User: What shape does this take?
Amino acid sequence: MNVKSKIPVRDAMTTRVITATPDTSLEEIAKLMLKHDIGGVVIAKNGEPVGIVTEKDFTTTISKGKNPLTTKAKDAMSSPLLTISPEQNILEAARFMTKKKVRKLPVEEKGRLVGIITAEDIVRVAPQEIELLLELAAIKAKEGTEEGGAGEEFAEQGTEGECERCGNYSDYLYKLEDGTYVCGECREAEEGEEEEEEI
Assistant: This one.
């Protein structure tokens, strides 16, 4: 079953994209992210986007022993830059994000940066379509575990997305009995509440 969406990326993306140059320090990048409350800054050279610096890139830089105060964007950014067209639909964007394991996609039209779309944007504008995708992913996971014997625990896992309880983004969502998709922490909290009620 192939789920399609009529919502184009253009209708979900953020048009104001914060950019920096390759020589900008990670310290300045961090300040930009805090100031604008964003999770990534697109790196542009001569007006052309060449990469992106996200929270994950900060973690990678620090884990390699580099000093984020002196490291430049060009030495920490994810490159080449993955982009998507504004005319593609949001589920195509979601599938591309899942395939490439990214949460943010700059939107490019005729070689020009026109916006950026995140996993959170997709969940926000198309909750019903995302719920259907989660259902299909859960069914697919269950079919795989029936043959492989991996157990019910993995069959319950859907896919990545926004927790319907706390709103945080999670790589794995679990479906509760009421049909709500939650992150691991909220699931544990839910199970804890059920145990207290039984006592």
